[in-house]
């Protein structure tokens, strides 16, 4: 049985003179969460576009669920779903209508039932009949991810799923990603945030100047760097921890 959901070898891509990917190699194990970490402009979206068959590489090979992206793009598309950096939610429609629309586009039986199940799973049942334009950032992102799960893809691409979200919505999204993975879905996510990769990923690959400069589990990556000098100071909470503590107190009142 094949255990790799994604295999990438020697991937290169240029946009005119701009050599963005200079030989990228990595593998993603089935059912795992893989984070491609890189700063803005590193080429993360380019990798996602190649793997989801939206863009052709100049050289190198990539296979998704055992299918070569160049030779069998149709089979690859069957197996995946893509949630882009910019939400695909139609603001004029309600949450339910958005989901029913996607289910119809994918020619599923019982689109209404599919929508109801996803609304429930993502805690959107109460908001189902409100227009998406009045949803909070976190709710919209939940709906966006729910939409990408219509039709039960085996592999989901999340391109910077939390960029632009407030801390609470980020944590909500993290929870969803973990649940997806617990349910057996392979998750390929890109992020600019170290803490996001740290929170979520089974394996992390760092894309820098066109190549994967480091990859492995968090523990393996930590070993690559010299240990920080130990200082005996009380650990200060992060701003995010403080913010969330305040919010949860408010909700408890
Ligand atoms: N269609 C395009 N034409 C020209 N340059 C592009 C195109 N798409 C992306 N780029 C450039 O390629 C580089 C990598 O982009 P991208 O893959 O979007 O990076 P990331 O997602 O890591 O921020 C950036 O410098 C970007 O400006
Ligand atoms: Mg990007």
TrEMBL record:
<keyword id="KW-0067">ATP-binding</keyword>
<keyword id="KW-1278">Translocase</keyword>
<dbReference type="InterPro" id="IPR050763">
    <property type="entry name" value="ABC_transporter_ATP-binding"/>
</dbReference>
<dbReference type="InterPro" id="IPR003439">
    <property type="entry name" value="ABC_transporter-like_ATP-bd"/>
</dbReference>
<protein>
    <submittedName>
        <fullName>Glycosyl transferase family 8</fullName>
    </submittedName>
</protein>
<feature type="domain" description="ABC transporter">
    <location>
        <begin position="6"/>
        <end position="234"/>
    </location>
</feature>
<dbReference type="Pfam" id="PF00005">
    <property type="entry name" value="ABC_tran"/>
</dbReference>
<keyword id="KW-0813">Transport</keyword>
<dbReference type="InterPro" id="IPR027417">
    <property type="entry name" value="P-loop_NTPase"/>
</dbReference>
<dbReference type="InterPro" id="IPR003593">
    <property type="entry name" value="AAA+_ATPase"/>
</dbReference>
<keyword id="KW-1003">Cell membrane</keyword>
<dbReference type="GO" id="GO:0005886">
    <property type="term" value="C:plasma membrane"/>
</dbReference>
<keyword id="KW-0808">Transferase</keyword>
<keyword id="KW-0547">Nucleotide-binding</keyword>
<comment type="similarity">
    <text>Belongs to the ABC transporter superfamily.</text>
</comment>
<dbReference type="InterPro" id="IPR017871">
    <property type="entry name" value="ABC_transporter-like_CS"/>
</dbReference>
<dbReference type="GO" id="GO:0016740">
    <property type="term" value="F:transferase activity"/>
</dbReference>
<dbReference type="GO" id="GO:0005524">
    <property type="term" value="F:ATP binding"/>
</dbReference>
<keyword id="KW-0472">Membrane</keyword>
<dbReference type="GO" id="GO:0016887">
    <property type="term" value="F:ATP hydrolysis activity"/>
</dbReference>
């Amino acid at each position: 049985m094949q255990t790799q959901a994604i295999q990438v070898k020697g991937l290169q891509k240029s946009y005119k003179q701009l050599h963005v990917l200079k030989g990228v190699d990595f593998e993603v194990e089935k059912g795992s969460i893989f984070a491609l970490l890189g700063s803005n402009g590193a080429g993360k979206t380019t990798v996602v576009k190649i793997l989801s068959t939206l863009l052709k590489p100049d050289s190198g090979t990539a296979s998704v669920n055992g299918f070569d992206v160049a030779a069998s793009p149709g089979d690859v598309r069957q197996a995946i779903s893509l949630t882009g950096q910019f939400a695909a939610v139609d603001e004029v429609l309600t949450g339910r209508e958005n989901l029913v629309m996607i289910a119809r586009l994918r020619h599923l039986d019982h689109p209404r039932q599919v929508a109801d199940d996803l609304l429930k799973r993502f805690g959107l049942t109460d908001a189902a009949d409100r227009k998406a334009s009045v949803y909070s950032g976190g709710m919209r992102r939940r709906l966006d991810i729910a939409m990408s799960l219509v039709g039960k893809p085996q592999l989901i691409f999340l391109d910077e799923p939390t960029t632009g979200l407030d801390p609470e919505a980020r944590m909500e999204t993290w929870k969803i990603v973990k649940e997806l993975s617990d349910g057996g879905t392979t998750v390929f996510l890109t992020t600019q945030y170290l803490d996001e990769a740290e929170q979520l990923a089974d394996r992390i690959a760092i894309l820098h100047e066109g190549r994967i400069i480091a990859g492995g589990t968090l523990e393996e990556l930590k070993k690559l760097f010299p240990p920080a000098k130990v200082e005996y100071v009380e650990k200060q909470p992060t701003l995010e921890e403080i913010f969330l503590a305040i919010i949860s107190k408010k909700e408890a009142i």
